[in-house]
């Protein structure tokens, strides 16, 4: 285990260093403010420390940019009083009720009824109810939409399902099965289409080669815009 520490803006950051016998070069990855350094097995700790320090300015820049995106797109509906659904932010109101806890949506705002007898924290119940509601709407929308787009691009999965993934918006298996993250339902409809098309194209190109991206571009010419869109909203994946 290699332990290296760097200081960024007066704060200590401890990167996670991963050694791999298959790796030939060193790399730095930053996701949600966490720094991961990958190096070949046997790399001296002093070399790793120097490698990280030489890139400290780049690391600080990217952590700062991610923090801005995180603050802008953080999902805290109980505190913010709003929730994103199909690309739009809707007001959210909460009220105590003698009825069963539930979510209602009238195309203008969300209303969460919280049962008076619940012992759980109101914020926890609100988030859980919204997640359950959104996951159901995602299933109602994303599966039929995938079938429509599959017909358009003439690439047909063997199965379509939804998942609760922490680090990806969708996946395509070698068996031709496509799974989509239910959190997609919060995104713009064109953004959802991009993810679906991306996974459908993997049925033909099971990689991220130039040929793959050329195929994606045939059906989604502005795919680079939507890639950045989801990069900016990567914090959504952490909403639990």
Give a structural overview.
β4 (27-31) and β5 form a beta hairpin. It is built from seven helices and twelve strands. The strands form four sheets. A four-stranded mixed sheet has the order 6-7-9-8. It has a three-stranded mixed sheet with strand order 3-5-4, with helices on one face. The protein has a three-stranded mixed sheet with strand order 10-12-11, with helices on one face. It folds into two domains: 6-72, no CATH class; 77-238, Metalloproteases ("zincins"), catalytic domain (Zincin-like, 2-Layer Sandwich), CATH 3.30.2010. Helices cover 40% and strands 25% of the residues.
**What is the average per-residue confidence, as pLDDT, rounded to a whole number?**
93
CATH class of the largest domain: Alpha Beta
| Domains, number | 2
Q: Radius of gyration from the CA trace? A: 21 Å
Number of strands: 12
Main sheet: strands, sense, barrel: 4 strands, mixed
Sum up the overall morphology in one term.
globular
Q: Specify the number of helices.
A: 7
- Class by helix and strand content? alpha/beta
- Helix content range: 40-55%
Give the termini distance in whole angstroms.
Answer: 30 Å
Key structural traits:
three-stranded mixed sheet; single chain; UTP_pyrophosphatase-like; 40% helix; alpha/beta; Zincin-like
Give a short overview.
This protein has 240 residues and is an alpha/beta fold.
Fold blueprint:
Blueprint: E1 6-8, E2 11-13, E3 16-20, E4 27-31, E5 34-40, H1 45-54, H2 56-73, H3 77-80, E6 82-85, E7 88-97, E8 102-105, E9 110-115, H4 122-153, E10 159-163, E11 170-172, E12 177-181, H5 189-201, H6 210-219, H7 223-232
Helix pairs in contact: 4-5, 5-6, 5-7
């Amino acid at each position: 285990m290699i332990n290296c520490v760097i200081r960024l803006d007066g704060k200590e950051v401890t990167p996670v260093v991963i050694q791999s016998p298959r790796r030939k070069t060193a790399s730095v990855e930053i996701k949600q403010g966490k720094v991961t350094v990958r190096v070949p097995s046997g790399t001296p700790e002093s070399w790793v420390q120097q490698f990280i320090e030489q890139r400290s300015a780049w690391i600080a820049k990217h952590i700062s940019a991610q923090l801005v995106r995180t603050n802008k797109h953080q999902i805290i509906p109980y505190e913010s009083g709003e929730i994103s659904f199909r690309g739009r932010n809707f007001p959210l109101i909460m009220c105590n009720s003698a009825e069963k806890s539930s979510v209602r949506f009238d195309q203008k705002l969300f209303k969460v009824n919280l049962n008076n007898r619940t012992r759980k924290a109101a914020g926890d119940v609100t988030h859980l109810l919204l997640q359950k509601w959104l996951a159901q709407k995602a299933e109602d929308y994303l599966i039929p939409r995938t079938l429509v787009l599959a017909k358009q691009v003439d690439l047909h999965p063997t199965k379509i399902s939804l998942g609760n993934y922490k680090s990806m918006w969708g996946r395509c298996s070698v068996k031709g099965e496509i799974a989509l993250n239910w959190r997609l339902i919060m995104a713009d409809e064109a953004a959802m289409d991009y993810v679906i098309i991306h996974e459908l194209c993997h049925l033909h190109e099971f990689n991220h080669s130039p040929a793959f991206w050329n195929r994606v571009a045939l059906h989604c010419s502005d795919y680079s815009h939507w890639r950045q869109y989801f990069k900016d909203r990567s914090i959504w994946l952490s909403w639990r």
